[in-house]
Amino acid sequence: MLKTRISFTICLVFLFFSIAGAQPVLTLKGAVEKATQNYGTIKAKNNYALASQSLVEQAKRDYLPNLNFGFQQAYGTVNGQNGPLYGFGGLSAASSGLPLPDQNWNAAFGALYLTNVNWDFFTFGRAKQKVTVAKAVAERDNKDLQQEIFQQQVKVTAVYLNLLAAHQISFSYKRNLDRADTLRRIVQARAMNGLVAGVDSSLANADFSNAKILLTRAIDAEQQLKNDLTQLLGTGSEAAEFTVDTSMLYKAPVIEQFALDSTRHPLLQLSKSRIAVSDEQARLIKKSYYPAFSVVGLIQTRGSGFESGYSLDQHNYNKGYFDGIKPTRTNYLVGLGATWNITQVFRLSKQYEAQKFISRGLSEENTLVVQQVKLQQQLAATKSRNAISVYQEAPVQVRAASDAYLQKTVLYRNGLTNLVDVAQAAYTLVRAETDRDVAINNIWQALLLEAAAAGDYSVFQNQLQ
């Protein structure tokens, strides 16, 4: 029964790796390209950037004059009365006519046709500043998009490298399982022949079970990382069936020191663009202190069913619809004016002060970001040196551990050592192989950290050629 369970477990392990081998290979470049094209946040921020570009054009068109066309046709009486009134909320009538001695209910059609143009042609640069603010907002949203793309590239690359390391560790634990199975069979054969104590067989079975547990955990970790990568790709669960490209682990990248270029780092550029938007908004508030000079032009035509002699003869009107709406009188008007809300200056002064404080706050945040990026560069340089050192030592450790394991197994077969020493040598070999498998991966990770600190993903991407 025990042999059946063991054989079944081994079959499942081999089935996992055979399925993995049949899956399509997803390269790191392909993963990054898919993520930048399909990830939802990038798509959203791209639309935000496009919206900001449209608002720039809208701000430019705000300077155009207002051109209004209107007409109305109405039916009613024209009783007039001397006295003051105003159209409060549009609730009073605008009927016109001379005051008559008595009320009458004579009614006819009337019409009004007008075209109106009014244009704030000079506002002390306010219209131009609105365009400048809109451009600053568009630039900020574009920088936000570029920063999001950069972050997604780094995230996808980091998860891909972790998945690559987990994939290699799974193979290491598979080799460890094979060694444990071979040793278990040898111990069982020797125990059946009475060459070793039966307890050695139990210890070998325990080591074999431990090797299976390690492999299962490694496979589980690999599946979790694959799921994380699939989420970052933004292509849905249908793209979850793939295997990673291990060819990049055959050659270690060349790591160089890169100076911080604040004109290219996406995070720093986004921080500066936020300051620029706040500064431009403060200038717009400042320009709102001043008056606006306007020009207005109007042409108006009216028609009425009441004739010109209606004040003398109250029967001199026509109830016909077309007679009432036909234009009979026209007026025009052109004018120049200025409006200046004096109290607005006192209100806006505090808004301007608040906006300046916002700019100072954003400047402090930018200073903090610069400090964090510089510290990240220092950390990246340290990790690069450490990763290279480990990479150089890993082969030495593997050779020594392999020799020790070989020696212990030979001694055990000849009855010159016990199974505990063999198990310890096997553990040392597994640890050495794991360190070797992740050593070159750690160099790639260090290079990614260098690229992230420099704000230039091409630093990493160029090494993939």
TrEMBL record:
Its main location: membrane. SUPFAM superfamilies: Outer membrane efflux proteins (OEP). GO terms for molecular function: efflux transmembrane transporter activity; porin activity. Keywords: Cell outer membrane, Coiled coil, Membrane, Signal, Transmembrane, Transmembrane beta strand. The keyword NAD does not apply. Residues 1-22 form the signal peptide. GO terms for cellular component: cell outer membrane; efflux pump complex. It comes from the Bacteria. Residues 128-155 form a coiled coil. It is found in: Cell outer membrane. PANTHER family: OUTER MEMBRANE PROTEIN TOLC. This is Transporter. It comes from Flavihumibacter solisilvae. The lineage of its organism: Bacteria, Pseudomonadati, Bacteroidota, Chitinophagia, Chitinophagales.
